[in-house]
Amino acid sequence: MPARTVPQVRRWNCPPVTRENVDWAQLATIDLARARTPEGRAEQVEIARDAMHKQGFFYVVNHGFDLAENQRMIDIASVAFEEVDDEEKARYQARIKETGTYLGYKLPQYWVIANGVRDRITHYNFPRNVHDRNHPEALRPYLPEIQEMVEFTHCTILHEVQKLLSLGLELPENTLSDMHPFDDTNHSFWRFMLYDPRSEEEERKTEGVWMKGHADHMSFTALWSQPVTALQIKDHDGQWRYVKHVENAVIINCGDFTEYLTGGYYKSAVHRVIKPPADQEGYRRLNLIYFGYTSDNVVLRPLLESPVIQRTGLTKVIEGEHPTMEKWRKTRTAVYGVSELKKAADGSEYEIVNGVKVTHHH
């Protein structure tokens, strides 16, 4: 068969990796190629289980999406920010509070970071089926490729990870992946995300924090690794550490929905974005992210049939009524970053959403 002809796209020049001496988080790596044999699969199950229990973050490599395809999607992502004018961005702006979804543009200055400083983050969000809504004209030629990457991330990467994590709970391997079908009951979404540099005054007022520490409310997040060092996780010992760039790797993080689904056994990872090291100052940070949800009708009850959860007991429970995924995702999305926060004794801020204390870390 002849190769498919794809539209040309301007190259996005990724910055060089940092050479600064920073404190790196030691994250586990899941090798999906090794998971194809019975012996390798047992090994990867153990690695995935322990990493999600301890840190809530791990890398995935050898997933089948090559480096050239990754670079092209970065190039396509830049179109959303470089080739769509402000007027058209405004027309496609997301109605986040009204709809409880991010679909469309989240424009800068939406979230308050600290001391009156608002964010410098733009993102454009696609539904799981990108053809379910209209998009800016400049992005339309690339929709088939975006849809392919969405489906690949959901069905090839996340489903395989979910199978490993189900086995880690000593459950049938399809337990978690069956909760995440690639169909119209599922409202997972794809994001192109751009961080622009800030002024020295804004950096001083926010102590260099670009996005406050938080845990994702989704079930799983798949973040394609990129070279600007700014992502940090709050490690298992309570220290903030940088997440190192691994070329063509996907960083999987556990969200709050999965933490409550597993009674606290799998930990939702607290993470933040801060000013990059000195040798990367001034660079724009461009991300590819897939946010995974279960079907909307899944009720957030702990998987008590898991022998692992039976042995360890429940450490995270929801007080009161168990929400469905639909209620969970819409409520958490609508209020995040715009509701009034309460102060905790440790200096962090929090809000109560769906009976859950949602903490914002500095």
UniProtKB/TrEMBL annotation:
It comes from the Eukaryota. This is Clavaminate synthase-like protein.
